[in-house]
Amino acid sequence: MKSKAKVLIFLLCITGIGVFLKGHVSGYLLQFQDRKPCACDTCLVEDEWLLQRANKSAEPFLSAKHNLSEYAFNWWKCLQAERRSYSFYKQTVDKLFQTFPSSPDFIERSPDRSRTCAVVGNSGNLNGSHYGRLIDFHDVIIRMNSGRTKGYEADVGSRTTHHIMYPESAMDLDTTTHLVLFPFKIQDLEWLMKATTTGFSGTSYVPVKSKIKANKDLVMVLNPAFMWYVHDIWLEKKGRYPSTGFMALVLALHICDEVDVFGYGADKDGNWSHYWEKLQNKKLKTGVHPGSHEYGIIQKLAEQKKLKFYTGL
To answer: What protein family is recorded (predicted)?
Structure first.
């Protein structure tokens, strides 16, 4: 009888321990499941509307481990009449990563913080906007092409963490800013390697800088497949290819948790002008890019609260 009582007590103890552990483990798992990948109320990485448009194979940046598909290469090579082969492109990329970091450098996702991005376009609607302090408050501040800050700090801010360019729009950078190359042809990759070292001596449709000041450890190169993805999925093949500004915006949606957009669209007079210059040709529109269509998508994203769109003056 005593042995039966001992067995019963032993079984009750085991059951109690099991219930205790189950409660604690379940609580831990629920707590883990409830943790968001970022500290925002709504993380872009979890947004179903954006996930439907995301193509996991289209990595935003090139890396030493990434292989561009021949299909994507053939689309990309038509952008500016590239005549050299797929194998030559791969050889060039191999050389590229002998000079620059083998993988992109950006803020990792964390449940303890929200990565905020300001994408700053070059529209004349920034003049008089007084957005400068708001722009400078962000973690990541993306500017592009000939965008500058000196003399315009009150409206466009003074900080830049990532500056997007291609050879024909290149400018010198300080040592803390990432140079983000948007390549449209193999020569753009060759330019990057030579302009940051011995000097570039080639020609293009406009004069390009032979040498450029930039921190080689902070160089990043957009993946040509990402360009194709933006054109195919986001723009539904409208226009010849996306504008630099629109690709920058989609890039921000991929690498940030909260995205604020400034300096896009026409100015108050309906002109597509730059905030630092007086427009001479008022018939100038958006060229080969579907500017109105891109602008409409940005407005839709703002209406659906995927980003905040500051339209300026």
So the answer is: Belongs to the glycosyltransferase 29 family.
